[in-house]
Amino acid sequence: MSRKPILQLLLTNDKASRWLFIVMGVLGVLVPILNLAVPADSAFHVPTYMVTLIGKYLCFAMLALALDLIWGYCGILSLGHGAFFALGGYAMGMYLMRQIGDRGVYGNPVLPDFMVFLNWQELPWYWYGFDNFGFALLMVFLAPGLLAFLFGWLAFRSRVTGVYLSIITQALTYALMLAFFRNDMGFGGNNGLTDFKDILGFDLQADSTRVSLFVITLLCLAGAYILCQYITRSKAGRVLISIRDAESRTRFIGYKVEHYKLFVFVVSSLIAGLAGALYVPQIGIINPSEFNPLNSIEIVIWVAIGGRGTLYGAIIGAILVNYAKTTFTSGVFAEYWLFILGALFVITTIYLPRGVVGILDGYRQKVARKKADQAAATPVPQTAGGK
């Protein structure tokens, strides 16, 4: 990617993207200052738990962005993107577990606590290398990327599309969930991986570490957004849209549809894996419930409510829905949250097919028309002599 396209992207006339970057910039500056520099007894202090909560929302926003890239622009409705998110999370979790060393409950310098509890005698071969951050970071991308490549190559080569592809992706994540629940898989079983101590030598419970993870997540979200914008505005992006709207015609005129689908599917899985890797050290746990197909369905709802095919709409939808989830599940409406979420999806599908972004665009167009009508109704002043 050359420097010129990036500059053209950042200086674009897309007001929504510009406002998105402004908001992210403000968050990136204010949140660390209000957490680290403002006293805890001040009304303007942002507590550390809030920093972590916002960081979690940003991870989910990145995950929604990944899904919108393939669903909104290529028409691939994946109901298994939670699997890529979880694989990236497990890769990071394995690194964090290896960093505990002899500080665990059982004091074993090599084996994680759950392996000692289950009477494992030696570290499994697939845990080797995770004591190195570089190797773990490689696996954050390699694990979901390789799975997406193999699955996509088989599915797209066989021309599996539509609801059939959605069902297969859902079956994939369900199979992974069942596998990771098994204790003999060596990933912590139903308890998963937790009790992390530090990352790269920095205490995970320290405020400065939490703020740093928040800033890194914000920067990664911005980078992922720029990457997705670059892809969708390129020639390849136009081909992806044509595949979404008329796949048979696109194939007929000579484009290798399977190659384009596979490319964008793998890129989307890499973004989802990165989101999972950033999620784990901030939340402090990763377990097989992240593979739950319901989580993947929720991602679809985030994108639909925010606005499919806009990228920034997916970010808005993920943050709004998860903020509502936090609000409702912490109060008296906790047991009704799934009904509320379902109702939101139905209302959006029937009455707001373009989501929140559609409402904002409609309001903006209404204001623009009103200004145009006022300008047309304003009499034009004439110069002396009526000329």
Provide a quick synopsis of the model.
By secondary structure, the chain is mostly helical. The chain has helices at residues 3-10, 15-36, 48-74, 81-98, 113-117, 133-157, 162-181, 207-233, 235-245, 247-252, 257-283, 293-306, 312-329, 337-351, 355-377; strands at residues 193-194, 198-199, 202-203, 285-286.
Write a structural description.
The chain is mainly α. The protein has a single domain, classed as Orthogonal Bundle (ABC transporter involved in vitamin B12 uptake, BtuC). It contains 15 helices and four strands. The strands form two sheets. It has a two-stranded antiparallel ribbon with strand order 1-4. The chain is globular, with a radius of gyration of 24 Å. The mean pLDDT is 90.
Per CATH, the architecture is Orthogonal Bundle
- The poorly predicted ranges are none
First-to-last CA distance: 56 Å
Q: Give the CATH topology.
A: ABC transporter involved in vitamin B12 uptake, BtuC
Q: Tell me about the biggest sheet?
A: 2 strands, antiparallel
Report strand order across the widest sheet: 1-4
Secondary structure: number of strands = 4
